[in-house]
Amino acid sequence: MSWLVLFIAGLFEIAWAIGLEYSDGLSEPVPTVGTVIALIISMVLLAKAVQDLPIGTAYAVWTGIGAVGTALLGIVLFDEPATSARLLFISVIIFGIVGLHLVSGSH
């Protein structure tokens, strides 16, 4: 269950990171509120997950999910470059997340 909570926390990390772009430096009220709400939810869920998972593993997976999701959405939503090298390194992060999950115990 902690891994699912951590995954959802990572999704909310993506939401607040993308929200930063839409909030225009936190100057647009509606996107700013959504960004702050997503940030709070992400942190609360991360805190819940680390009650059962090692903090180093949980934090690395949480940031990895956020980095991968934000980078991919940056490509889709904001026309950021989708070069072969960039996609290769994003896939390295994915392999790291999966690897941490495979080698980590639940406490």
TrEMBL record:
One Pfam family hit: Multi_Drug_Res
Chain segments annotated as transmembrane: 33-50, 57-78, 84-103
GO CC terms: plasma membrane
Superkingdom per UniProt: Archaea
Major site of localization recorded for this protein: membrane
Alphabetized UniProt keyword annotations: Cell membrane, Membrane, Transmembrane, Transmembrane helix, Transport
Subcellular localization, as worded in the UniProt entry: Cell membrane
Gene3D superfamilies (alphabetical): 1.10.3730.20
Keyword Transmembrane helix: yes
Membrane topology: Multi-pass membrane protein
GO BP: transmembrane transport
Keyword Protease: no
Entries under InterPro entries matching the protein: EmrE-like, Small_drug/metabolite_transptr, Small_multidrug_res
NCBIfam families per the UniProt record, alphabetical: PRK11431.1 (NF008512)
Protein name stated in the entry: Quaternary ammonium compound efflux SMR transporter SugE
Top-level taxonomy: Archaea, Methanobacteriati, Methanobacteriota, Stenosarchaea group, Halobacteria
Gene expressing this chain: sugE
